[in-house]
Amino acid sequence: MNSIQSNIKKAKKYLDKNHCVGVPTETVYGLAGNAYSDMAVKKIFKLKKRPRNNPLIVHYHSIYQLREDCHVNDNFLKLYKKFCPGPITFVLKLKNYSKISKFVTNKQKSLAVRFPKHPLFRKLLKNLKYPLAAPSANISTRLSSVQPSDVIEEFGSKIKYILNGGKCKIGVESTIVNLTTRPKILRLGGLEISRLEKVLKKKIPLGTKTKKIVSPGQFRLHYSPGIPLRINVKKPKKNEAFMLIKKRKVTFKDYYYLTKKNNLKQAAKNLYSLLRKIKKDGYKMIAVEKIPNVGFGKTINDRLNRASKF
Ligand code: TXA
Ligand code: MG
């Protein structure tokens, strides 16, 4: 048995016993548990210190599995065909007789689902008899994890096992689209909205909370490095770390580049790890230069805005 197979076997062993396991995805690391098990799902909420009314995303290997739990529609099929597996999460109607634990959805009738692309995670899902509920692997309101060492920083020995899939390729969470009504974007993320709009051949508005559904925007502070962060800064204060996207002629030790080439996709990928590094380097405050609100810049600004509410 090679090491990949034996690691997957290990992860499966823990998951089958209703324990939580750290899993790699192309976006960020997840804290996974059996989505059909009340016990496993309750553990996820406890470990993350996550409010019970903030529902989880369930990860599937195939559409066949998904059909057992959710009603699919035309918009879903179009987007699924084009982007899955990939960094997109769909909110769909839950079937009445689905086996999904009621704790995943907080008893609501919709379910957020996703088909992650990371090959190791896909192999794991293929080996399981159940889908995996997996929120980002971080304590609630804090920075998401993009590599195994981040997951250890968040949970230490409280989780049994982390499936090591290296560093996440995208580095920010999936884009969430609500398809239970007219399509609406609930969270900006690793897939640009313009690409979804092209497939559905219409504008997809940003939706915030609906009556009952809790959406990510409902929680003010999020994605926080745990120290104050200022955005749209031209000149940093003394002792502030300065996060930049444009290369300066003269660089100081307080300067941290998300990208030197104004590449916003690369900046998004580096965002969480650079924030973690700044904190580790001992800074007590962070200033960020203005980031253009286009493409991945929109996702970055969404995260920084929330992080600035500290
Ligand atoms: O990239 C990702 O999506 C990562 C990886 C691990 O897959 N997962 C992730 O999960 O970001 P989490 O739990 O950190 O964020 C999921 C967001 C939450 O803010 C939650 O409010 C929203 O999805 N959500 C979950 N179920 C929902 C539902 N039925 N309706 C509306 N929003 C929902
Ligand atoms: Mg999260």
Supply database-style keywords.
14 strands, Rossmann fold, alpha/beta, 310 residues, DHBP synthase, binds threonylcarbamoyladenylate, binds magnesium ion
Secondary structure elements and their pairing?
Blueprint: H1 3-16, E1 21-23, E2 30-34, H2 38-48, E3 57-59, H3 63-67, E4 70-71, H4 74-83, E5 88-94, H5 102-105, E6 110-114, H6 119-126, E7 132-133, H7 148-155, E8 161-162, E9 175-178, E10 184-187, H8 193-200, E11 229-230, E12 241-244, E13 255-257, H9 264-280, E14 286-288, H10 296-307
Helix pairs in contact: 9-10
This protein binds threonylcarbamoyladenylate and magnesium ion.
Threonylcarbamoyladenylate is lined by residues 25, 27-28, 30, 54-57, 89, 91, 105, 108, 110-112, 114, 116, 134-136, 173-174, 176, 186, 213-216.
Q: Write the element-wise H/E pattern from the N-terminal end onward.
A: HEEHEHEHEHEHEHEEEHEEEHEH
CATH superfamily of the largest domain: DHBP synthase
Largest sheet: 10 strands, mixed
SS field, number of helical segments: 10
Mean pLDDT: 95
Percentage beta strand: 15-25%
Q: What's the CATH class of the largest domain, please?
A: Alpha Beta
What name does CATH use for the topology of the largest domain? DHBP synthase
Number of domains: 2
Structural class call reads alpha/beta
Coarse shape: globular
CATH-defined architecture of the largest domain:
Alpha-Beta Complex
Instruction: Tell me the helix content.
Output: 25-40%
Distance between the termini: 48 Å
Which consecutive residue ranges, at least 5 long each, have pLDDT under 50? none
Small molecules (ligands, ions, cofactors) in the structure: threonylcarbamoyladenylate, magnesium ion
Radius of gyration: 19 Å
Query: Count the strands?
Result: 14
